[in-house]
Amino acid sequence: MKKISLVLLFMLIFTSCYGKPSIERTSVIAGIGHDIDKDKTLSSSFEFIVFKSQNVVDKSVVTTKGKSIFEMFNKRLLITKRRHLPGTVRTLLISEERGKFGISDIIDAFLRDQERNLNTTVAVSKQRTEEILKLNAKDSNTMAEEIEDLIKSSYEANFTQRDTNIKDFFNMYYQEGRHIMLPYIEKYKDTVKLSGIAVFKKDKLIFTIPEEDTKYINLLRNEKAQGYLTFFDENSKSIDLFCNSRRNVKVDINDNKITYNIYLLIYSSVKEANIDDAQELTKDKLIELEEKYSNELTKQLQEIADKYQNKYGTDIFDVQKYAVAKLGRDKIDFIEENFINSNIKISAKIKILSPGRIIR
Amino acid sequence: MFKINNQITRNQYMFIIQNSIIGVGILSLASGVCKVAKQSGWISVLVAGIYPIYICIVAALIYRNTNYNEFLETNKRIWGKFLAYIFTIFFFINFIFFSSFVLSGFANVLVFTTTKFLSPHTIIVITVILTYFTINYGLTNIGRLSELLFYLTILILIIPFYFINKGHITNLLPLFDDVSSIFKAVPETFFAYSGVEISLLIIPYVTDFKKVLSSGVIGSLITIFIYTLTVLLTINYCGHILTSKLQYPLLYLVAGADLPVLSNFEPLFIFLWGNKIFQTLAVGGYGLSYTLSKIIKKSYNRCCLYSCLIIMFVSSMLVPEHTRTMVIDKVEPYLVGFILVYSTLTLILSYFKGGKTFEKN
After folding, report:
1. Do the Cβ atoms of A257 and A345 come closer than 8 Å?
2. What is the pLDDT of residue B361?
3. Per mean pLDDT, which range of A66-70, A104-108, A298-302, B162-166 is the poorest?
4. Stretch B115-128: mean pLDDT, rounded?
5. How many whole angstroms separate alpha carbon A92 and alpha carbon A31?
């Protein structure tokens, strides 16, 4: 017994932590924003929570400039009064300009540093991140939390992508045939809104998809997504469907020409049918509607796919990975180069599962 | 001072085999195989699983042919006195490497993840003291410990399952891109599968010899299944490029699991997994002390002290992770190769040189 207590005592002496600031001197970082200035110096902003007194929580933003990420970190410690814990970051925000400059250093820092949280949300902002983080948060304590909530709660509509986490960000960067595609937010009145998708090639932002096309690109890109689709008939009366989409991709190769067949199966329920009152939504009528809208949607999606394929020649539909899986990992260059010449065939099929509470 | 008891049951033998293979290797296994075999790395892990199964079968057959005498007696019978001592010394060296790799790896992982404020040497000293107290009571104690810790393995298994539908199947295709690279990646798994050599020493202490062979094989199969599954799921989620870049791919998965309530699953995982390391280390320490006591003909307890000091000294030299990886890459293929040759030859010779049972201590 004596021996065991000696061992325990020995262990307790050695396993203490010291040489670190105590908990009162630490602060919780909520968001990090990365910008670039005109003369190519980097700039980063930290948003952190300040506990003023009991139940009073405020926030503050610090911006520093420098040539590398940790040079800015050094400078930040000269300004801030508390030790910052990088493990609590909710949102990583990258400005559009910084994206165009290249973000490989950010990827490396976040992946290499063991202390960083792997459940951070990543987004691209139109304005400078400093400007966005300095806005007054309405729903939460900090803008970073608000942006995270905005992105996470948007899954239910517009077929918004779910892979907005930093792990997915690393995956999109490192997996062959894929491109980084992140939610694009912009300042809207005195808050922020989701307004598109930012598309990267390697580590550089190349273009952003505008708001009006985002829904259809998301529908084409995501394996599983949710959203509302609206169709109009000749009398400009509308029908709204709540849809759950499933994507299936098949790749055919003929004489060095790659054909991507994207099959979309959309399970939907009618949420609003402002069509003729006399019409009853019987089985025949629903089948007729299914067929009509499937064709309409296929046509619409094909137009958009052709437009983006011809304009940018970059895979924004996340289909190249299927070609890599079929042809082999060493054919990646061939696949990337020939994307602009390949065929993209889309066939969407809408299935109406339920007409809702009223049937006439 | 300590009462040594070496008898173990058949189930305890199975658990010892199963637990002694899983060690530090599970954390970094995916990284090594993906570097060479790319997306087919998990097939290499599956193929390399032949090694522990083979050793278990061979060990059981050797002892069956020679009537379950102790390790040194059996060797003397088969190889003669001089060579028997040489082989015992070889196993002694093998267990020095095995234990030191595990201990230094454990210290490195702890310093890398949860206990950044500690020096790795402190962790080594404390762990060695724990190991000393564990192995002093003999194999029975280790068997009981293994039986208890086996259920922790299931907990460790649950974590990768969180990612089972999160990845994408295209990360694993095409299945056989380059068949030769799958075999080239097999040496990367040797460290992860080492530890099974203990079966060559402990079979005579099993109380029931009837199903020793199948117990060993089942123990190895459980481990192979866990290894293959973790590597498969890691590649499925991260893709082979990211997996080969990471130092501890399994820890990356664990840290990334987004669970409610817990902000980070990593410390809890390290806590569970650390208990397994104490067991793996105890097995290594037992093998070391056992062979040492046969070589220098001193009491087992005295040898425990010596072997703990040896482990402590060698693992302190392997402290930065890159040094350890370098030494493993150089040493492990020779150790595994030698054990394979030794066991095969012994098996063949044991068919000719059977005999009656000697008295056990």
Report:
1. no
2. 46
3. B162-166
4. 87
5. 6
For A82-118, give one letter per residue: b (16+ CB within 10 A) or e.
Answer: eebebbbbbbbbbbbbbbebebeebbeebbeebebbb
Q: Does A11 sit within 8 Å of B126, measured CB to CB?
A: yes
Nearest to B203 by CA among B213, B218, B188, B191: B213
Sorted by where each begins, the domain ranges of chain B are 10-350
All residues of chain B having their beta carbon less than 8 Å from the beta carbon of residue A15 are 115, 118, 122, 126
Per the DSSP assignment, residues forming a β-bridge with A66 are A42
Residue A202 in contact with residue A333, Cβ under 8 Å? no
Identify how many contiguous H helices and E strands chain B contains and give both numbers: 17, 0
Interface size, chain A vs chain B, as Cβ–Cβ contacts under 8 Å: 69
Tokens of A296: 């309409």
Which of A170, A322, A328 lies closest to B242 in CB terms?
Answer: A170
pLDDT of residue A239: 86
The partner residue sitting opposite A19, judged by closest CB among B113, B117, B242, is: B117
* Helix, strand, or coil (residue B206): strand
* B115 alpha carbon, distance to own chain's centre: 24
Where does the pLDDT of residue A76 fall: very low under 50, low under 70, confident under 90, or very high at 90 and above?
Answer: confident
Domain B10-350 has CATH 1.20.1740.10: yes
**Cβ contact, residue pair A325, B169, below 8 Å:** yes
Check pLDDT > 70 for residue A14. no
Q: What residue ranges do the domains of chain A occupy?
A: 20-209, 215-360
Please give the residue that has the higher pLDDT: either A360 or A348: A348
The pLDDT tens digits of the residues spanning B216-241 come to 899 999 989 989 998 999 999 998 99
Integer angstrom CA distances of residue A68 from A133, A281, B90: 21, 63, 52
Smallest Cα–Cα separation from B134: which of B7, B284, B271, B10?
B284
Structure tokens at A320: 């190249």
Q: Which tens digit of pLDDT belongs to each residue from B326-346?
A: 998 888 889 999 999 999 998
Which tokens go with A125? 């902002």
Tens-place pLDDT, residues A215-232: 899 999 998 899 998 888
The residue ranking higher by pLDDT, A253 or A277, is: A253
Residue B228 CA to residue B44 CA, distance in Å, equals 9
Average pLDDT over residues B303-316: 91
Residue of A nearest to B171 (CA): A325
Q: How far is CA B361 from CA A273, B23, B72, B133, B204, in A?
A: 88, 31, 13, 21, 11
Asked if the Cβ–Cβ distance from B238 to A329 is below 8 Å, we say: no
Query: CA B356 to CA B344: how far, in whole Å?
Result: 22
Distance, CA of A342 to CA of A336 (rounded, Å) = 10
> What average pLDDT does the segment B150-162 reach?
78
Q: What's A106-142 look like in SS3?
A: HHHHHHHCCCCCCCCEEEEECCCHHHHHCCCCCCCCC
- A215-360 folds as GMP Synthetase; Chain A, domain 3 (3.30.300)
Measured between CA atoms, the residue of chain B closest to residue A318 is: B170
Q: Is the dihedral of CA B349, B352, B357, B358 positive or negative?
A: negative
Under an 8 Å CB criterion, which residues of A touch B?
7, 10-11, 14-15, 17-20, 87-88, 111, 114, 117-119, 165, 167, 170-171, 174-176, 223, 321-322, 324-326, 328-330
